[in-house]
Amino acid sequence: MGRVSDPVNGSGETVPDLYTGEPPIQSAHNTWKAVDEDLARALGRNVHRAWTGQLFIQTADAHQVTLSAPSAFVANKINKHYIDTIARLWAKHDQVDPPRTVSIVSGPRQAARRAPRLDGERPSLVGVPGSRQTGSGRTAPSLLPPVSDVARKRFTLDNFVVGPSNELAFAVARQVINNPVPQYNPIMLHGVNGMGKTHILHAIEAGVKDRDPDRRVRFVSAEDFVAQFVASVRGSGREGMSAFKASLRDVDLLIIDDVHFIADKSASQEELLHTIISLVGAGRQILIASDRHPDTIEKASDRLKSYLSSGLVCKIGPADYDLRLRILDRLIARRREQGHETLAIPQPARDHLAARMNVTPRDLEGAFNQIVAQSQFLGTPITLETVQETLSDSRYMTGQRLTVDRIQRTVCEAFSISLTDMSSKRRARAVARPRQVAMYLSKKLTKRSLPDIGRRFGGRDHTTVMHAVKRITQLRGDDVTFDAQIRAIEETLKG
Ligand SMILES: Nc1ncnc2c1ncn2[C@@H]1O[C@H](COP(=O)(O)OP(=O)(O)OP(=O)(O)O)[C@@H](O)[C@H]1O
């Protein structure tokens, strides 16, 4: 396990996390403990011991955590190969909302001390949600339930705001909760990151358990599925494998999140396929989420794709302005319930937030947290001007996230082709036309030059991109149906 360093935040900051009420360094240690365990599973104990297991927490504040490696060599290796996994796991476990960003640096190891005890020597947390008074009169954070319980309480159907883009998913969730006999099986939920898939899945899990405690529910991320599968293949012989299979199949409802993660792992894919076949055959519900339509999960076998699409495929689309506004209202209400009763965001500031943050509910939440934190810590009111100032930070600017890659993925999803087709030499109309659409949109919606765009489509010449732009412009003028289709894609991209 990774070591813990001096529990004092490097910057001396002792501002508590808004969400957990814990000082940043303490919650960073708690999060790291869970991440560290997952890392060992995901990467294998040997790799973990050799690299990521050497990391220790150097500094942490409400927004960022710095992990330190004992040498530049180890830090480089981790930054090159394992940073994505660490960031993903950190986002999964962090009790701070939105999750803090993680960076890896190298530095001399500090004397490894234990994280501070929960019962004393803590900075004052007066007025922070989740804090409590100790017998000595000192304020200490409440003993929090494990993060998964926190998530479960938060990700309920009551907290899910419904609009045209997610009403089907919401209806499906209620149907699964209320009806133990599968109507559609498997159910596949897809939508780009941050749209609320995990929220719905947790809500279903909690809803089913509440309604019928005897219904056996298992929630597993695809990452854990792979880790447990690999461990059972490597480690514990036939018994281990049977236990693994039983843990997934002796259930009434199996929920698997982020299934695209499995795509390039052929043995895990095969196991997933058999799990689906077995559960569907036994009349048990299986619910799967992915960031893309099953047909566009690259490297997934045709058989797996066809099984994933064989029940109900349900998309969560981008939230429109009205939905974003209502999500914002829900966030404000939740904060007030958590004890921040004086929280006030004037309507023009709300409108501005909802109008500008047309990316995903997660981005909206991130901006909201940032604005509230700033106002709380600086003791200043939230106004249209402070919101405008925060949103002028490039991270929150609309359109900055419109990358060629995102355009390609969205177009692939719209036309049900694979991402590799975007750069392939295939000239069949079914592939060439979407490719031209993606080139056209890249030119129209990003600041990339024609040669640059061409390079991102399998090294094509700028004249090919020019031709695509002309062709699609012409087709939009000639064919209203095609024009409407492109407009819909643009709207998806702009939110
Ligand atoms: N309709 C909604 N109402 C309220 N909150 C929402 C809604 N949609 C998303 N959110 C919130 O946005 C955040 C991101 O949602 P979630 O993690 O479920 O996205 P996701 O689609 O699973 O993303 P990823 O693919 O990255 O895992 C969560 O905090 C969730 O509660």
UniProtKB/TrEMBL annotation:
<dbReference type="InterPro" id="IPR010921">
    <property type="entry name" value="Trp_repressor/repl_initiator"/>
</dbReference>
<dbReference type="InterPro" id="IPR003593">
    <property type="entry name" value="AAA+_ATPase"/>
</dbReference>
<protein>
    <recommendedName>
        <fullName>Chromosomal replication initiator protein DnaA</fullName>
    </recommendedName>
</protein>
<keyword id="KW-0547">Nucleotide-binding</keyword>
<dbReference type="Pfam" id="PF08299">
    <property type="entry name" value="Bac_DnaA_C"/>
</dbReference>
<feature type="binding site">
    <location>
        <position position="196"/>
    </location>
    <ligand>
        <name>ATP</name>
    </ligand>
</feature>
<feature type="region of interest" description="Disordered">
    <location>
        <begin position="100"/>
        <end position="145"/>
    </location>
</feature>
<keyword id="KW-0067">ATP-binding</keyword>
<feature type="domain" description="Chromosomal replication initiator DnaA C-terminal">
    <location>
        <begin position="403"/>
        <end position="472"/>
    </location>
</feature>
<keyword id="KW-0963">Cytoplasm</keyword>
<dbReference type="InterPro" id="IPR024633">
    <property type="entry name" value="DnaA_N_dom"/>
</dbReference>
<feature type="binding site">
    <location>
        <position position="198"/>
    </location>
    <ligand>
        <name>ATP</name>
    </ligand>
</feature>
<feature type="binding site">
    <location>
        <position position="194"/>
    </location>
    <ligand>
        <name>ATP</name>
    </ligand>
</feature>
<comment type="subunit">
    <text>Oligomerizes as a right-handed, spiral filament on DNA at oriC.</text>
</comment>
<feature type="region of interest" description="Disordered">
    <location>
        <begin position="1"/>
        <end position="25"/>
    </location>
</feature>
<keyword id="KW-0446">Lipid-binding</keyword>
<dbReference type="InterPro" id="IPR027417">
    <property type="entry name" value="P-loop_NTPase"/>
</dbReference>
<dbReference type="InterPro" id="IPR038454">
    <property type="entry name" value="DnaA_N_sf"/>
</dbReference>
<dbReference type="Pfam" id="PF00308">
    <property type="entry name" value="Bac_DnaA"/>
</dbReference>
<dbReference type="InterPro" id="IPR013159">
    <property type="entry name" value="DnaA_C"/>
</dbReference>
<comment type="similarity">
    <text>Belongs to the DnaA family.</text>
</comment>
<keyword id="KW-0238">DNA-binding</keyword>
<dbReference type="InterPro" id="IPR018312">
    <property type="entry name" value="Chromosome_initiator_DnaA_CS"/>
</dbReference>
<feature type="binding site">
    <location>
        <position position="197"/>
    </location>
    <ligand>
        <name>ATP</name>
    </ligand>
</feature>
<feature type="domain" description="AAA+ ATPase">
    <location>
        <begin position="183"/>
        <end position="312"/>
    </location>
</feature>
<comment type="function">
    <text>Plays an essential role in the initiation and regulation of chromosomal replication. ATP-DnaA binds to the origin of replication (oriC) to initiate formation of the DNA replication initiation complex once per cell cycle. Binds the DnaA box (a 9 base pair repeat at the origin) and separates the double-stranded (ds)DNA. Forms a right-handed helical filament on oriC DNA; dsDNA binds to the exterior of the filament while single-stranded (ss)DNA is stabiized in the filament's interior.</text>
</comment>
<dbReference type="InterPro" id="IPR020591">
    <property type="entry name" value="Chromosome_initiator_DnaA-like"/>
</dbReference>
<dbReference type="InterPro" id="IPR001957">
    <property type="entry name" value="Chromosome_initiator_DnaA"/>
</dbReference>
<dbReference type="Pfam" id="PF11638">
    <property type="entry name" value="DnaA_N"/>
</dbReference>
<dbReference type="InterPro" id="IPR013317">
    <property type="entry name" value="DnaA_dom"/>
</dbReference>
<feature type="region of interest" description="Domain IV, binds dsDNA">
    <location>
        <begin position="376"/>
        <end position="495"/>
    </location>
</feature>
<keyword id="KW-0235">DNA replication</keyword>
<feature type="region of interest" description="Domain I, interacts with DnaA modulators">
    <location>
        <begin position="1"/>
        <end position="106"/>
    </location>
</feature>
